[in-house]
Amino acid sequence: MLAAGIPSPPVNGFAIGPFEVHYYALCILVGVVIASWVTTARLRAVGINGGTVIDIAIWAVPIALVGGRLYHVFTHPGDYFFPGANLWNVIAIWEGGLAIYGSILAGVLGVWIGCRRTNTPFVALVDALAPGMLFAQAFGRLGNYFNQELFGDRTTLPWGLQIHTSSPAFPAGLPADTLFQPLFLYELLWDAAGGALILLLGKRLRLPRGVPIGLYFLWYGAGRAYLETQRLDPTELVLAGMKFNTIAAITSALVGLVIVLLAVRRSRRLNDGSGLLIDAAGKSAKPQPADHSLR
């Protein structure tokens, strides 16, 4: 019998006729809806047609999914390429296995293409998208819960996560009642807090153009860098003694920091040194350029 803690779901989907619907896919879909809704509202707040979000998503979402899957397969080759392997599993995205960094890199390309085709300012779009992305990723982590993945070392904490011994991710040699750190839950809370923080800062301060997306990379990268060191299902790729995903997370945080610093520097230059940020009422000693800065 499993010990007390957070129980894992007995199933990861349900059937509709001959079709199997996986909760993992539904979580991703709901995450896309959340990101689109938040982005639309934020674009409209700065005078940009929010309806363009759907047109951009038509490009960004499929490209992001392909990128996320390719990154996952690239960092876990032993799961897909071995004697007798069914190569169709490479595209079995519904069974889990999406790498967020692959999705981000490919998604940025998709967003850029969509912005070009809809004549939408790219930086304004990604700034509007930043908190929505964190909320979407938070909800998407529930998909890891249904797939019984993204957990850490053994724990005796009351919120320890139960993992069924029948799960392929269950570590060999451990008792069936072992509880694990629910890293999916920690990341869910971290992402949700980051999205709320960006929205709060936007309400209290007029953030310079580029700061929201910079904060996204900085916040997510910093949290993910720590959580990667706690995972029991590490990537197979190791560089200089460090997991590839950890390197990607640290790089993400550093890129975010650079983006924020450059955006603040640009804002100071445009304001002639009058201040780091404009106050919540939008008051300033000098007229500000129309750069679609988000509140």
TrEMBL record:
Q: Where are the transmembrane segments?
A: 21-40, 52-71, 91-115, 122-140, 183-202, 209-227, 247-264
Its annotated pathway reads: Protein modification; lipoprotein biosynthesis (diacylglyceryl transfer)
Q: Which residues bind a 1,2-diacyl-sn-glycero-3-phospho-(1'-sn-glycerol)?
A: R141
Entry-linked PROSITE patterns: LGT
* A Pfam short name: LGT
Function description: Catalyzes the transfer of the diacylglyceryl group from phosphatidylglycerol to the sulfhydryl group of the N-terminal cysteine of a prolipoprotein, the first step in the formation of mature lipoproteins.
Q: What's the name of the protein? A: Phosphatidylglycerol--prolipoprotein diacylglyceryl transferase
Native source organism of the sequence: Curtobacterium pusillum
